[in-house]
Amino acid sequence: MIIHIAHRRTAESEDKRYIDDPLWEHPHGHANQVEAMTAVFAERMFPEHRTELRTFARKIGGIAGRWHDLGKFTQAFQTYLHRATDPDCHASDLGRVDHSTAGAHYAVEMLGPLGLILAYVVAGHHAGLADWDSQSSESALKYRLRKTIDQEWRSCAPGEVLKIMQFSAKSFPLPRDGFAAALFIRMLFSCLTDADFLATERFMSPDKAAQRPSEGPGMARLSKTLDEWLAARFPEAETQVHRHRHDVLRACRARAEDETGFFSLTVPTGGGKTFSSLSFALRHAAHHDLRRVIYVIPFTSIIEQTADRFREALAALGPEIVLEHHANLDVDDPKTQHTRLSAENWDAPVIVTTNVQFFESLFAHRPGRCRKLHRIAGSVIILDESQSLPVTLLRPALEVLKELTARYGCSVVSCTATQPALGRRSDFPIGLVDMRELVSNPETLFTALKRVQVHYCTQPVTDHDLAGQLAGVKQGMIIVNTRRHARELFDVLDKVSDHCLHLSARMCPQHRTTVLNEIRARLKAEQECRVVSTQLVEAGVDLDFPVIWRAMASLPSLVQAAGRCNREGRARTGNLFIFVPHEKQHIPAGEQRKTADLTREIIELPQYGNDPLGLKAIDHYFRLHYWNAQGTHDWDKGDIMQLFKLGSCPESLFPFQFKTAAERFRLIDDGQRPIIIPWDDRSETLVETLRKIQKPAREFIAKASRTLQRYIVTVPEWEFAQMIQHAMIDPEPLHGRFFILTHPGHDYDAFTGLKNSVKGPIDPARLIG
After folding, report:
1. How far apart are CA 274 and CA 278, in angstroms?
2. pLDDT tens-digit profile of 299-338?
3. pTM value?
4. For 85, which DSSP code?
5. Checking phi first, is residue 727 left (phi over 0); if not, alpha (psi -120 to 50) or beta?
6. Which residue blocks in 14-137 are alpha helix, DSSP H?
7. H/E element holding 414?
8. Mind listing the pLDDT tens digit for each residue in 190-229?
9. How far from 743 is each of 379, 526, 679, 732, 746, CA to CA, in Å?
């Protein structure tokens, strides 16, 4: 009798107290665990009142878990597994054994057209959700279902098929909506991959499994803790600004028991919308029995600050309450064995993440990116600065939000100082419907919180003049559009003034945090402080300068810049000077040039002379920028929605192109590569340790990855190649994962960060941020 094995571990790799445990796991034992977890995860994606969807999801989720590893019941796979755990066998000699196609074949054979749902999920549970058809025919699901495979597994196939034979394509609750069906498949895929990972971890790494979070405090307790912290930290009301912030907070709390759906929070920058929106979200989640709050931020550069503020507010409940997740070290790089081990599955009550991580995950096809998706269901999603979504991806982004609210029990809060941006109207038919504003009278609030006088410089301004103007004030900041401009302007300023600081994404997060702390300390002590920065300071960074200069940019960017000026309302008025750079190389190209020209056109109109950053000007801007796009193609330039059309015949009912959609839905077009900067003693010591250890444990690599996120600068692919050519980094990553700056003392400036790897002119559009 053949004893089949699903997983095999070596005793040496485990803690001594597990030494007497079995070193192998039977496929049926593994399948039982995955079946149970997948069924629970799938059912919990839908709210209690969606009985039909919950029942269907539980049943089909359980089947996915039961069938996902049928291909392990073959001699070829058993041989592969034994060789993989042989210490004398090199990984390069193992080859590949397909164990996922068998379950996909069985699903279509047993369930007909409905089996295609399971076929995508089961066939892709390691490699990722495939396209139905593609030029790379071997990987496409259509051709995998035609593939001749070993039939040994049939004798071990589960015998309970008759229990689910009543399923048919008509029993699928989402049969007439291709996009909805595709999202369901991706969400079911998330349930299976997370369950498979967790079940495997329980056997292979029981120590790590034991450290995973158990059931934490409920949303009601989180809400109460936040209320107590806010009451102690921000007593009512030192200034008029503070009083209005408390009014916003009370308005948000008063609406927490509203039905789930779409909300907007239109509050001027500095009006307290961050904690007001979090307070609403926690109360709303507690009232509707939702499981988590997901706070989505446009820029990686400020995610650490927001997460730290939330941790401080909820510290009484423990640091694990808040999880920050962004892509400095991408968890889904298939080229390294450690990526899945460092993947987060968002099993925390409060998530702070980026637009890139959130939206690209919702269109992803790889297990690492998709594993967390089922935990988005039943959440309150706060979109901070929601107007930052690119126009060319608006339609698919808004469609997925509509699905999350319509079927998956989510509420979405569009939180911005520049509403309305996303609501449906006659000239913006793809917009969100039934958005409810949490603040009753935004116009009155904007008027009451107006604390900045705007000055528009009609003639271009040179860097020398800008530096002279900033040198003439005790405290001030210049915000420009590109990293190159920030670096060159700082060099000019540093020659004519003291107490100068610089901020850009060429500096690693730990470096930026140190500089920001110094800026805040100088401002608070009323010391001299002159800063040159890119736009990374414009979303959620709490700075309060009496005067700011801002290079011409999109109108929302100018509004954000104004929010760093006289933020606390301590002065009678602050001053914002909007200018156009004299040097042509400092004027950005592409979309940034387009939105800057549009803004210039609007603020030069006489009707906005007294209030160029007011709600009427903002409305005008979005009417031209979003709403007057030339047809729906401009809102979906990758034709992503066309990739999820239903098929015309049962054999290809769901001919979806998951892999292609993931490749096309990219918020950042230019691929970014992370470079580790040994910037301080902590990072230098860790890098030195990594260099010395020949074969570090996987757990050590995962821990090091988390620590080194604070020491990363991302660069585009073209610059990454230049850095290798100039020996700034090694051509091969350390331990298959880490690219480390070789000579930080030479290639990383103490003030401006990572130096350029090339000499001569650089396209400024490539150095944004």
Report:
1. 6
2. 776 777 788 889 999 999 987 888 887 654 444 444 333 3
3. 0.85
4. T
5. left
6. 27-43, 51-67, 75-84, 101-111, 115-123
7. strand 411-416
8. 999 999 999 988 888 787 777 777 777 899 999 999 999 9
9. 45, 37, 11, 16, 6
